[in-house]
Automatic annotation (TrEMBL):
Single GO biological process annotation from the record: protein transport
Protein name: ER lumen protein retaining receptor
Membrane topology of the entry: Multi-pass membrane protein
GO cellular component: endoplasmic reticulum membrane
Family recorded in the similarity comment: Belongs to the ERD2 family.
Source species, domain of life: Eukaryota
Amino acid sequence: MNPFRTAGDLAHLTSKCILIWSIHRNRSAEGISLPTQAMYTLVFIMRYIDLSFGWVSLYNFGMKVIYIASAVYVLILMSFLYPRTPESPMAWRAATMSVVLSAIWGLVFNYYFSVLEILWSSSIFLESICIIPQLILIHQTTIPTVITSHYVLALCSYRLLHIFGWGWRYHFDHVLDPIAVLCGLVQTAVYADLAWVYYTRQRVTLRGGLVVDSEEYEKGRLADEKDDRGWTSLEATRMGRNDEEAALGGIILPPHGDPDA
């Protein structure tokens, strides 16, 4: 067994768990790109469509089921249960172009011209660029998001570990997949950009659990300013319990005394 590939799989799974936990904890999907998560779901479905008739091992079967189930669950949370950030037309255009181009590339670049092989190749191409709408959203938003440094770290670790896994496989099995390697390098570069953008727009957690943009924190506007009732913005936000006062960027805040606060 390739230890780096296994570690990469677990890092990827960890990123999904962190994302789901963060959405539930904040009771919001603010700052998470719906097109990106929809494309992740499409990637897993296309890649693991052989789930019902291609048995490799219990580990392989279990990971495929978990990947698909977790991706669909995130879509359900974002679409029906929690508020999310509206996507810009640019993000939706990028998602549409990503799907179309990946389908074309899958038809042109594959190892065997069969349905399963074309779907697999298309999924590899799509995964390498499906984070682009998320990048667009992070660039355009100045409000708090539920994306955490742990989520970004897990994503980047997943990609880095798979790169080491390619080296392990080439050294011991003398096998190198050009499509997977090329797309993996592209995906690594995109993830590095995501990590850099997140770092430069780092979120800060204030006492009481409120998460704000670091720029706002440095200005002290949220923490220090008081309204005509003598409340700071933080206090007013936690006490208001309406769309303007109880949700800063869609993140619903529990009232004082809430055991989850």
